[in-house]
Amino acid sequence: MKIKKEEFGKFENTAVYAFTLENDHGVTVTFLDYGCTITKIITPDRNGEPENIVLGYDQLVGYLNNTAFFGCVVGRVAGRIGGAEFTLNGKTYSLAKNENDNHLHGGLKGFDKVIWDAEMKENTDKVSVKFSYMSPDGEEGYPGNLKMNVTYTLNNDNEFTIQYDGISDETTVLNVTNHSYFNLSGDIKRDILDHELTLKSNQYLELQENLLPTGEFAEVDGTPFDFRQGRLIRSGAESEHPQNQLAGGGYDHPFVLSENRNEEIVLRDSDSGRQMIVETDEVGVVIYTSNQLAGDDPIYGVQPRKHLGICLETQGLPDAVHHGNFPSWVLEKDKAFTSVTTFKFGLVE
């Protein structure tokens, strides 16, 4: 097990560093202190060939100009807040409108657009980097001085763990996730339409035209949203189901997890033989199949296009501040928040 640190670029005259965690089995994870952004995850295919399985850029400028949130931690609140405002304890808070009339992924300067403090830790069986950031009261309109820690850990069982910890000196709202786009083909050789996703979920949230939840929980039975026995992403991308069409040909939907910490999310690519198991303590996961992905900046030499990656955003349910029937995002004053998601890399049996 080892860990490496090197300069990646400069942001506002401040050096941005890349950290690489490496285990004894050919798995490496590279990420930046800018936005806690994961830039590469290298895993071997069934022939032992190590290749990158996430979308990203070779240079910092790509991330500075990026609107797709490649690999970063998003917050204080991941997802959309309708009307860019919410009421908490009788007070209304106005947030930045950075997606039409909505607030998206923490606003204009969310967790993804700041440099975090970093502390490296090395052990014989695991290596980690603990990132820290103090989000001041009023930043992007949110109440409370919020101290956040995000810890990335890789072990010799090929498990990569993300742990989020937060505490605020005022009651506030918090809903964080990592926004990596996965493509298990390796080095973006193919799109993700023939990736198979298995998901322990009986319900998903219906979306409105603006991609905000209607508030209705829809049953997955008999629909392209039933991943309980495994389903190719292609089946949703090519579906005539109104919800798949509304999302732009695929998925951009929150799913309610029926189990936690029990192989509840499994992504497979039969051609490369790669498999990734995701386990979390979060109530849900947003599945996004990059239906809106476009632009001119090459992604590791590949032109951006639809269905080039899939996001598995473990988190609370979007726009929960406007739906009393959703689990709450409210973080009480001086009460600790902790959330853990683990990605286990391996091969299809």
From TrEMBL:
Keywords: Carbohydrate metabolism, Isomerase
Known EC number: 5.1.3.3
Recorded metabolic or biological pathway in which this protein acts: Carbohydrate metabolism; hexose metabolism
Pfam family, one: Aldose_epim
UniProt xrefs under CDD domains: galactose_mutarotase_like
Catalysis performed (reactions): alpha-D-glucose = beta-D-glucose
Top-level division of the source organism's lineage: Bacteria
Keyword Isomerase: yes
Entry's Gene Ontology molecular function annotations: aldose 1-epimerase activity
Similarity comment: family membership: Belongs to the aldose epimerase family.
PANTHER family referenced in this protein's UniProt entry, alphabetically: ALDOSE-1-EPIMERASE, GALACTOSE MUTAROTASE
Protein's recorded name: Aldose 1-epimerase
